[in-house]
Amino acid sequence: MIIDAHSHVHDPVEAHVGLLDEAGVDRAVLFATRPHPERAGDLAALRREMAVLDEALGGRAGTVEAYRGAWRELDAALAARPDRFIGFLSVPLGLGTEETAALVEREVVGRGLHGIGELTPAPGGAGQIEPVLQAAADHGRLPVVVHGSAPTTAEDLAALAALAARYRDVPLVVSQLGGQHWMQAVELVRDTPNMYLELSTAPVVFAVRLAIEELPDRTLFGSDAPYGDPVLARTLVERVTGPGGVRDRVLGGTLAELAGLG
């Protein structure tokens, strides 16, 4: 099974399904989102959508109410195409341990979703995810996905690795190959057995090749659609791997294990 490990709700949903069909991708992990760059018809509209993205990546959308609209869109997409999408839920950061635990219990586990993410702590604020890791640890191997590209800093990546070492039962996925800090991300994930590296929007082709060589069982094919493209992302993985077990794991086998797809 080919699984895109990183995508966001599209408007309309069937446009996303069309991209998956074109790429030969069976299923996709689906994250909620507030910005919708795929809606933009011109540069001005795109700037408006990207301003919403900047707010989210800057950690300035930290209330439950700010998330509810995106959660409703995610619910609708999952209900429309349960055969194609694997639901993960973004949760607000900075709520405290008890409130976060109750939120994960109710909104993630209670709704039968497969993981938590994509989390977007503010730059320098990676430690904010600790209550989420605590909640995930209470539910076995519930995977947690954290934004890895800018504005995530090198210090944030190191902080994520330190937290992962503290919560060894929780699979922690760093997205976007760690962005410009991809070499550090590969090293940190290599040295932290419960960390994984998702490969979308890689800065250079050989970054993907090296990451897979170093982490054959802990790298995940992803597109970050609509910011990336499933066809291009899959082609890149296949360009730097040969047919066989490693490619199969990267293109979906490892993610299927993390998400409990059995």
Structure overview:
With 262 residues, the chain is α/β, with parallel strands linked by helices. It has one domain (3-258): TIM Barrel (Alpha-Beta Barrel), CATH 3.20.20. It has ten helices and eight strands. β6 (172-174), α7 and β7 form a beta-alpha-beta unit. α4 (97-109) packs across α5, α6 runs parallel beside α7 (182-190) and α7 runs parallel beside α8 (205-214). The protein is globular, with a radius of gyration of 17 Å.
Strand percentage, roughly?
5-15%
Question: In CATH's first tier, which class applies?
Answer: Alpha Beta
Secondary-structure element series: EHEHHEHEHEHEHEHEHH
Helix content: 40-55%
> How many distinct helices?
10
Largest sheet: 8 strands, parallel
Q: What integer is the average pLDDT?
A: 93
What CATH calls the topology is TIM Barrel
Stretches where pLDDT is under 50 for at least 5 consecutive residues are none
Domain Amidohydrolase-related: 3-228
Pfam family, one: Amidohydro_2
Protein name: Amidohydrolase family protein
InterPro entries: Amidohydro-rel, Metal_Hydrolase
Write the layout of secondary structure elements.
Blueprint: E1 3-8, H1 13-23, E2 27-31, H2 43-57, H3 64-80, E3 85-89, H4 97-109, E4 115-119, H5 130-137, E5 144-146, H6 154-166, E6 172-174, H7 182-190, E7 195-198, H8 205-214, E8 219-220, H9 230-240, H10 245-258
Parallel strand pairs: 1-2, 2-3, 3-4, 4-5, 5-6, 6-7, 7-8
Protein name: Amidohydrolase family protein
